[in-house]
Design goal:
heterodimer, A: mainly alpha, B: mainly alpha, MetI-like fold, flat
């Protein structure tokens, strides 16, 4: 249906009007996405540190356990685990409730199961990042700390941590960007994040391209801002390091 | 045997009864992933050359493309193409609509290809830039033109150096291909979701899918270990075994 030359201009106006009309929905979705990403980041940082510690410890069972954790998680796609934890977790939690009689029917929350699953997945990637960073610290420095009589906690705080941050930051930036984008998958289990809200707005207005493009741009802004911020941090932690190349 | 099977709280019989569907899912996942990797990889070669050059127009243009596609989720890219393009009447009436843009398979294939092309471009660019200066100087000294040294010297060694990073990209693409199941395609996860929906189950379909993906990742890892041994042996450390590459 072509109604003359005036049509395209008025159409672009209505398209932008539509996006502004639904802006509160888009903003709410963006906030859910950011919260989900940050909550899962907290989980994966803790698991990553524990995993790196286990992999580097002389304790054989701990090494084996951490090795199994990273290879299993990295062998299975994120969405499969998200669906398994959400639907399987629902059934498991209720089965435990029935058999122990401690609680009645429980609805598993999409946000909680989503951030836990993504946190567990990226904990495996952070394990490798932290392990590599700790291994990059020259062994002699730790031995020097021991010979000065430093306790383990002081060695970690004064020698390992400041350098580990520098070695781990490039890997951290990479993991975080992937993690932020992975949160989009949680819309599949019905969490009202950016993708979900943009999709429903697009469906109800018949303008799916417009709203998916809006979500596309918002994700791009989030990753670009993270990228710029983390690079500045990398420079800060690399002060005093002379680059060979 | 039956006693062992009874210990597993899953309906193994149901999974086995639908095993042929899962095998079709494996076929769908593999052919979608590897065709996208092939086409994306071919697109990545000229783009990586442009990104490694100092060309004032091509380099920033390709950089813009890879930045946008690496900065947004594959799910959103796929939705934009599959659900989004139908918004425009011009698209719906064009010759591309009927065989291609209205089909979920083609939309997933296009989105995956553009996505993997962006990542492959950047990692191949890294490998090209790491070419030892002496090799290029030797090529110049023996009278190689730009095209000839690209074809004979730089690209063959860059491809070899890109193998370890590329193995990660292949696994990421396989993981990313589950997005196909959200636009109605019956890939491995699509079959798992279908099974769970049909029989109202919570575990069987997803666990079978997880196992199948795990086996495929294991096979890909083996394949790349073999490739690295054969084509990258000259760069391996002398004494210790090859370290497992963190991503």
């Amino acid at each position: 249906m072509n109604c003359g030359a005036a049509r395209p201009r008025s159409q672009t106006e209505t398209v932008m009007d539509l996006v502004f009309e639904y802006q509160s929905q888009l903003i709410a979705g963006t906030l859910v996405t950011i919260q989900l990403a940050l909550a899962s980041l907290a989980v994966s940082l803790i698991l990553g540190l524990l995993g790196a510690w286990a992999k580097l410890s002389p304790n054989r069972p701990a090494q084996k356990l951490a090795g199994a954790y990273t290879s299993i998680v990295r062998g299975i796609p994120d969405l499969v685990l998200i669906l398994l934890v959400f639907y399987g977790g629902q059934v498991t939690v209720n089965a435990i409730g029935v058999s122990t009689g401690l609680w009645g029917y429980v609805d598993v929350n999409q946000f909680v199961s989503g951030f836990l699953t993504i946190g567990i997945i990226f904990g495996a990637y952070f394990t490798e990042t932290f392990r590599g960073a700790i291994m990059a610290i020259p062994r002699g420095q730790i031995e020097a700390g021991i010979s000065c009589g430093m306790p383990k906690s002081l060695i970690f705080r004064r020698i390992i941590w400041p350098q580990m941050v520098r070695y781990a930051l490039p890997g951290f930036t990479n993991n975080w960007l992937v993690q932020l984008k992975t949160t989009a998958l949680v819309s599949v289990i019905g969490l009202q994040d950016l993708v979900y809200n943009a999709f429903t707005a697009g469906r109800s207005t018949g303008q799916l391209f417009t709203f998916m493009a809006a979500a596309f741009v918002i994700y791009l802004v989030l990753t670009a801002l993270s990228d710029i911020g983390l690079r500045a941090l990398e420079r800060r932690y690399s002060r005093g390091v002379v680059r060979a190349v | 045997m039956q006693a062992v099977l009874d210990l597993i709280p899953l309906d193994i019989g149901l999974i086995l009864a639908n095993f042929d569907r899962f095998m079709w899912g494996v076929w769908m996942t593999l052919n979608l992933t590897f065709l996208a990797l092939l086409c994306g990889g071919l697109l990545a070669i000229p783009m990586a050359i442009a990104r490694a050059s100092r060309h004032p127009v091509l380099n920033p243009m390709v950089w813009g493309y890879t930045y946008v596609f690496r900065g947004t989720p594959l799910l959103v890219q796929t939705f934009l193409i599959y659900f989004g393009l139908g918004q425009f009447e011009a698209v719906r009436e064009s010759w591309l609509w009927d065989p291609i843009l209205s089909s979920a398979w083609w939309c997933a294939f296009i989105a995956f290809t553009l996505n993997t092309a962006a990542y492959s471009t950047e990692l191949l660019r890294g490998a090209i830039i790491d070419t030892p200066k002496g090799e290029v100087e030797a090529a110049v000294a023996t009278g190689h033109s730009y095209a000839a040294r690209m074809r004979r010297i730089i690209l063959p060694s860059a491809f070899r150096r890109a193998i370890p990073a590329y193995s990660n990209e292949v696994i990421f693409m396989l993981h990313g291909s589950v997005v196909a199941s959200t636009i109605t395609l019956q890939d491995i996860l699509g079959v798992g979701r279908w099974l769970n929906g049909r029989y109202y189950l919570a575990y069987e379909g997803f666990i079978t899918a997880a196992l199948l993906y795990f086996l495929i990742v294991l096979a890909i890892t083996r394949l790349f270990r073999w490739l690295e041994r054969n084509y990258l042996g000259h760069l391996a450390p002398r004494d210790s075994e090859a370290p497992a590459s963190p991503q």
